[in-house]
Amino acid sequence: MTTVIVPVYDAVVATAACLAALKRSIAADADVLLIDDASPDPAIAPMLAMFAKSRPQTRVAHNIRNLGFVGTVNRALAESAGDVLLLNSDTLPTLGFLERIECCAASDGRIASVTPFSNNAEICSYPAFCKPNPLPADIDAVAAAFAAEANTPPIDLPTGVGFCMWLRRAAIDAVGDLDHSTFGRGYGEENDWCQRAAAHGWRNVLCPSAYVAHVGHASFAQTGERAGGENLRRLVARYPRYNGEVADFIARDPPAAIRARVAARLGAAAP
């Protein structure tokens, strides 16, 4: 069974929306771990407790001090067994997304990570590729259009995207957890993990049939960390071919056909 891990830091409105969407999107007996990274907002703790009260398989943990996103995820990885799904608290999961991701992962035992499509997920974005699209007016309709891709094979990625990323426990055991010492409070850590997994012969893939909406930068961004900068320089220094691999993926655009079919189902023109 996959454990859904939701790291939380403040952002009460976004977190409440995420938990409400998660509650209706996964089975009642799904294993969930909510971990609060010492949020200053007093509304967070009772919100997490209320969610756990309604779902018997939910655990809630509270960091005594703020560890940042990477440290919080590593604590959650250590306190869970089996496969995990890392889910940002500014996402809006959709009905059946977890089952579709798990089905995608089951297609090949060498898949280390699975990322769904989203409106705001860089190389996994829809409708515009590699752009932060606004939230769709009808998230469920978009998710249903992607669900029709259930028989489409997963697409290999140069890196997973950390807003919503499933990780196989065997791959975690093989390559370790996120690199907190290098990437500090966050950004670049999932790219590093995926590069390490690939170096060990694992695959990082995009799930054609799963869709999770993403608001973006509503939670841990409040700690002052931002994408790029020094962490990107560290990533490229460690993996000199990384930028080239991403550029090649963008130039080839393997998800283009899927995006076009989804747009056709929705009666929209593909960008």
Describe the structure.
This protein has 271 residues and is α/β, with parallel strands linked by helices. The chain has a single domain (3-265), classed as Spore Coat Polysaccharide Biosynthesis Protein SpsA, Chain A (Alpha-Beta Complex), CATH 3.90.550.10. 39% of the residues lie in helices and 17% in strands. It has 11 helices and 10 strands. The protein has helices at 12-25, 44-53, 68-78, 97-106, 139-147, 169-175, 180-183, 189-199, 229-238, 242-252, 256-265, and strands at residues 3-8, 31-36, 58-62, 84-87, 91-92, 111-117, 155-156, 164-167, 203-211, 213-214. Strands 3-2-1-4-8-6-9-7 form an 8-stranded mixed sheet, with helices on both faces. A two-stranded antiparallel ribbon has the order 5-10. Helix 2 (44-53) links the parallel strand 2 (31-36) and strand 3. The longest helix is centred in the first third of the chain and has 14 residues, at 12-25. The protein is globular, with a radius of gyration of 17 Å. The protein starts with a strand and ends in a 6-residue tail after the last helix. The model is unreliable at 219-226 (pLDDT under 50).
